[in-house]
Amino acid sequence: MSLRCPIVCVLGHVDHGKTTLLDKIRKTRVSQREAGGITQHIGASEIPIDVIKKVAKDLLGMLKADLKIPGLLVIDTPGHEAFTSLRKRGGALADIAILVVDINEGFKPQTIESINILKQNKTPFVVAANKLDLVPGWNSKDVPFVLNFNEKVQHPNALTEFEIRLYNNIIKPLNELGFDADLFTRVEDLTRTVCVIPVSAKTGEGIPDLLLMIAGLAQKYLEDNLKLDVKGPAKGTVLEVKEERGLGKTIDAIIYDGIARRGDYIVLGNPDGVVVSRVKALLKPKPLDEMRDPRDKFKPVNMVTAAAGVKISAPDLDRVIAGSPFRIVPKDKIEEAKKEVMAEVEELSIETDEEGIIIKGDTMGSLEALAKELKKRGVKIRKAEVGDISKKDIIEAHTYSKINPLYGVILAFNSKILPDAKEELERYSNVKIIQGNVIYKIVEDYEEWIKKMEEALK
Ligand code: GTP
Ligand code: MG
Ligand code: NA
């Protein structure tokens, strides 16, 4: 029997420290390289069980059962308010979750939104009460929390301050949302009470406690729900479509169930139909590497067992977009798989208006986020598409600017202008392109452009 690797989703309000926490565990620096300091895609990385056992070696006695899972597949999500759909997608994949809350700031809108997603999916979770190092007077060190939480190490005032913040900022709001919650060392019944684990992503304090709790709970959850055995075709979701030298278009994906085999068929769903191709190569990222921003090359393998992050190389992936669901199946299962992915695809499209502007994005998730921000401001969107800016987009924007000059704009998140589109653009000075790699910056630039245009049109 092959033990399944549980999927752990990290959720929480913007800047409460999700990516930094994972960086500390992985010894990576992903958060420091993010545009605008915010996460705008779903990330994935594998934490092998050996690493967890090593980090938590002083605490293994706390656990009643042996750890049998092969590790954890950790999904990082954006906390910025625009990315509801990515949080939902991450949340839907998760077996178990870590809700990251800044212990000093407490609950914020996306903390509550995250909890609602967890409630909807009935996903068990723990709370990582982060930024413990910023509690006034707290002496934070790279040690387990249980070894640092006593009068010998902490000043009485710091302990008081900690208890106040823990209660007011974390436990009380959880109670108000209907959850019983307590500091994990005080929890007796793990099935009834939400464990709060104080951590500092900056110093590393509490990370052993967090990893051990989450590994223990994930294993128990999988066992109780008989989800330990992996079998059947692979089910997955596309994170990103990438051009790779020597491989052409490839997809970075998460396989959340089943087994993928090289040579089998991949059936992907897009808003405009189903793509069937044959898996030429399966490539696995190195353990502890963030798939979005790996330090090392991916390794070719013949088989991938859920849950895992994987790069897939196959011909004809041109029309595939990020966010697409897929199956990897033997030939005789293709038809069945087609029906399944089509059913999932229906959620993928963005509602558009009769007239309005054009928006482009590098993934379905970022496109949805951009659309959401614009709709909130009453902006009409006529076309929302994943991909680079094409000649056709320019001509359309030009045509629509005739109806209304304010429609002569294309907003593009992480999308390039294709060469022939560039040529076209030179002919149409009335078409404006606003590009960027930070969603809210694009929206700001757009609003500024609108202002200028309205001035000019007066
Ligand atoms: P989004 O993905 O954009 O929602 O943010 P995030 O939750 O991933 O937070 P991120 O890791 O980007 O951290 C936000 C800021 O908080 C960064 O400047 C971090 O250095 C800082 N930070 C994170 N954790 C800690 C911590 O434990 N202590 C202190 N002092 N700062 C922290
Ligand atoms: Mg982040
Ligand atoms: Na951030």
From TrEMBL:
Keywords: Coiled coil, GTP-binding, Initiation factor, Nucleotide-binding, Protein biosynthesis
Gene Ontology cellular-component annotations: cytoplasm
Binding site for GTP: 12-19, 76-80, 130-133
GO terms assigned for molecular function: GTP binding; GTPase activity; translation initiation factor activity
Domain Tr-type G: 3-222
Family in the record: Belongs to the TRAFAC class translation factor GTPase superfamily. Classic translation factor GTPase family. IF-2 subfamily.
Described function: Function in general translation initiation by promoting the binding of the formylmethionine-tRNA to ribosomes. Seems to function along with eIF-2.
Name used for this protein in its record: Probable translation initiation factor IF-2
Source organism of this protein record: Methanofervidicoccus abyssi
This protein's encoding gene: infB
Residues represented out of the complete protein: 1 to 458 of 599
